[in-house]
Each structure stands twice: as C-alpha cells, then as structure tokens.
Amino acid sequence: MDSGKILLGVLAGVAAGALLGVLMAPQKGSDLRKKISDGGDELKDGLKEKLNEIVDTITEKFEKVKEEVQGFAHKNKPSTEEVK
Predict the structure, then answer these.
(1) pLDDT tens-digit profile of 23-82?
(2) Crossing angle of helices 29-75 and 3-23, rounded to 10°
(3) CA distance from start to end of the chain
(4) Which backbone phi and psi does 28 adopt, to 5 degrees?
C-alpha cells in the first residue's frame, strides 16, 4: 500500500476523532483546547519520527545501491593493458 494513502488515512482518522471529541466533550472549552493542543503536539512528534524513519530507510537503500553500482563499475572497468 502506498505510504501517502496510509498517511492520508491516519490524518483523516485523527481529524474525525478530534471533531467527535469536541462535539461530545463534557469539559470546559479552555481545558478541551489544551487537551487538543497536547494531542496535536503528540501527533506532530509521532509524524516527525515516522518521517525520519522513512528518510533513514530510503537513505540506507540509496547508499547500498550506490555502493553496488560503484563496485560493479570498478569490477568491470577495463585495465589499461586490456585497452591497448
């Protein structure tokens, strides 16, 4: 499944949950706003962490492919004697 679709689904679920929480909350407005703000901060931190994991994974794969290509190029590079 595409990670963009997963992220969109998660964000839609969070938005729907926040809306239902606001509509059914038995708390004062100021308390509720603080709770929503704290939840948003947690969500932001979680998304940052997940994004960093994705970037790290992509970077690792890129480096691995880069090393393989360099090794292949070095191994198949003709020597000066072969060219002569």
Answers:
(1) 776 767 777 778 778 888 888 888 888 889 999 999 999 999 999 888 887 777 766 556
(2) 170
(3) 53
(4) -65, 155
Q: Are 18 and 36 in contact (CB under 8 A)?
A: yes
The per-residue pLDDT for 80 is 56
Three-state secondary structure call for residue 73: helix
Integer Cα distance of 65 and 83 in angstroms: 28
- At residue 9, the pLDDT reads 84
Q: How far apart are CA 32 and CA 77, in angstroms?
A: 67
Tokens of 77: 């590079």
The answer to whether residues 32 and 25 touch, using CB atoms and an 8 Å cutoff, is yes
Find the angle CA(76)-CA(82)-CA(84) to the nearest 5 degrees: 140
CA pair distance 59, 65, nearest whole angstrom: 10
